Amino acid sequence: MSIMPFEAPATAEAAPTASQPQRSLNGVLNWLVEQTPEAVSTAANDTDAPNHLEEMDAERREFLQKVLGEMESSDYLASVKTAIQLLTEPEAPLQARLDAMDDIAEQCEDLNVAQDFVTIGGLPVITTNLLSTTPEVKWRAADIVAILTENHPKCQEQSHANNIMSLVVPLLKHDNDKVRLKAIRAISSMTRGSQDLQDDFLQHEDAIPSLVACVHPDHVRVSVKAIVMCTHLLRMDPALGDKLVQAGLVNQLSTTLLRDEDAQLWEYALQTMTQLQATNNAFISTVQQDQPQLVQALQARQQVLGQLPQDDKDARREEMNYLTLIFQQAQL
Hints:
The chain has 332 residues and is mostly helical. Helices cover 68% and strands 0% of the residues. The chain has helices at 25-34, 37-45, 58-73, 78-87, 94-107, 111-119, 123-130, 135-149, 153-161, 165-168, 177-191, 195-202, 207-213, 220-236, 240-246, 249-258, 266-279, 281-290, 292-306, 310-315, 317-330. The radius of gyration is 30 Å and the shape is elongated.
């Protein structure tokens, strides 16, 4: 924020002396500069130097407090507060609501703003918009939840206290891709580093089945987010592998990889599969007995990668390593 000097009066006026109060912001700032340690040292060691050091009198102090107060009143939360106010107005036009939510999302990328947003009561406003029937409002609300809670324990605590997870999990079943995408992001942000929010997610019976269902060949971006989230769950608690297999994750991965013509999902899926097979015997038996096409696809993929030029092999090193682990450990 730039500080603009006050306009001088049109009529000529004598410059204030050291004993006169400075009535402009520049005057107060100049006075503050004159009180620096360097000025004090100069005055102490040079008896001939002009002595500008003086105690701030009541009038000058009052003026400084007023200026600083005005600076604070135009604080960095002003636009956020305006956006919150607009979102509480039932008759606000849709586009105005969307713009307000975009502004909140942008401002809350700053962790300090995110914390203050929660402190001033912004979270219930977002909660209300998670219940909107308009997809454009829903996904923006979920995105704000993700931004607020990512690497932010205090916002995670408030999300748990406000039972936000119970409103986000149902969005995994929404028919709009972007709503599902932002819902997965919100769940990922909330659960990372928060045991309470992890428990909130897992207590929903359909949470894991809904997440697994997001892995679908027709929705690549949503599939990537869902697969990464499944990997996160396995790292968080390897025992969740049983629930993921029971929810049909192996079948979803198989179907998706077989139709992944652009090879956008292989590395993400293989990472999840290596996590599964390391902790879950049901995964290996399911692949061996029920997914012969997946075994063939894995073998074909390994051959394709083995025939690549060396530079391309290096770029696919992680994927090749995952395939090697799967074939070694699962004995496919």
